[in-house]
Every structure is written in structure tokens, then in C-alpha cells.
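User: Hey, my collaborator sent me this sequence without any context and asked if I could get a structure. I don't really work with proteins. Can you help?
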Amino acid sequence: MALNSINTNSGAMIALQNLNSTNSELQVTQQRINTGKKIGSAKDNGAIWATAKNQSATSSSINAVKDSLQRGQSTIDVALAAGDTVTDLLGKMKEKALAASDTSLNTASFNALKADFNSLRDQITKAVSNAKFNGASIIDGKTTKLSYLANSDGSGITVNSKTLSLAGIGLSTTTTFTTAAAAKTMITTIDTALQTATNKLASLGTSSTGLDTHLTFVGKLQDSLDAGVGNLIDADLAKESAKLQALQTKQQLGIQALSIANQSSSSILSLFR
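Assistant: No problem. I've predicted the 3D structure and written it out in C-alpha cell form, which is a compact way to encode the shape of the chain:
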């Protein structure tokens, strides 16, 4: 038999406990809806929170890797642009040498062709020396290789330099001709230099493709990490929205139940009338 007491109202105590439990669940659900996360701090789930934090840090660090790889791409792109200029200049030099090999030319015409040849030669040096990105060049012969970040652990990817200066393609600052016969011989020399330059540019193109491929992979890796972190900590908002409606209804019913339980003690007064 239930004890009629004005000091202890068991029904109200139970109703209050249930209402507090509902309010606690409601607070958690509202927090998840507000933040979009089912695990917002270590106290929600320490193990999963720690895992998510570590993976988020890895994903963030990949931004530095992408920046480094893109810098490498730009350096090679500048080198390839300069290489195109070099090959164009070599083609024009061959044209001048071929024209100067004509023994029917007068002295003035020959000297004009020689001057053009020398000017084109000097332009190669200017093109190569200016082919820098962020102060780095991969074709000026001053470095043997450049390294860029490949992964978040600090490992790198190396791009070997390809010298396209005059010395690097078998020419020199004094390469020229003084006679029609020398001009004819120069044609072979320029052909060799052109072949050397195109081979080196092809190698740089392969290196650029390698950076492109790795950059694509790194981007996909970062997306996968972000998706994995989301799976660990993101809340299912559709589910939380439905739960919110249920808890709000449960809260209202709990308030009514507590009110009814509080009124039960007043019935004792009827015993003294």
C-alpha cells in the first residue's frame, strides 16, 4: 500500500527523474543539430574523437603537400616554356647557318646572317637564365635536382634538373661560323643541340606528368580522409530531427506527469475535512 505522506512524494520524484532524463537527451540532440556533429568533444566518445582529430590533422597537412607539388608543377611549366623558346631559337639558328653556307653570298649578306646567328645564340642564354619560378630553376645548370613534398609524413618526390644552357646542349658563348664551310658544319652541330634539348624537354614533361598524377592522388586521399572523419563524427540530421520531435513531445508529457504527481499530495487535505 502506498504511503500517504506530505514529506515524500514518490510519484513526483519519479516523474522528475524521467523529465530530467528527457531534458538531458533533448540537450544532446539540440547540440548535435546546432553543430552538425554527433561527437563534438572528447567527453562524447574519447576514442573516436581522438581518431577523428588525428585524421583531420593529416588531412590538413596535405594542404602543404599540395602547395609544394603545385609549386613544382609551376617550376617545370616555366622551364618547359623556356625550352620551347630554346628549340625555336635553335631552329632559327639552323636556318641562318644553312643560309650562310651558300657560297654565292656576298660579304655583307654573310656577315648579316652571322650577326643574326650570334644574336639568336645569346637569346638562348637569356631565356634559360630567366626561367625561374619562386627563385628556383631546373634548367639553368645551377642545381642538380629539386625535391617537393609527396606525403604528410615529410617524404619527398625528386625532379632531376635538365640543363638547357648553351653548355648543356653542346654549344658555347663563342659558337659561331666565319666561313660558308664553317656554316655548313654548324648545321650538324645545331641539329645535335636541338636533339639534346628536345630529349631533355621530353624528360621534364614526364616529370611534370608524374607531379600531376601524384597531385591528383593526394587530392583524392584528402577527400577520402575528410569523408572518413565525417563518418566518425558527423550527425545524421534527418535522424536527429525526428528524435527532436519525439523528445519535445516526451518533455511536454513529462511536465504534465510531474504536475499531476505534485497535485496528489493535496488530496490528503480532504481527510481532515
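In plain terms: The first helix runs from residue 10 to 35. You can pass these C-alpha cells on to your collaborator as they are.
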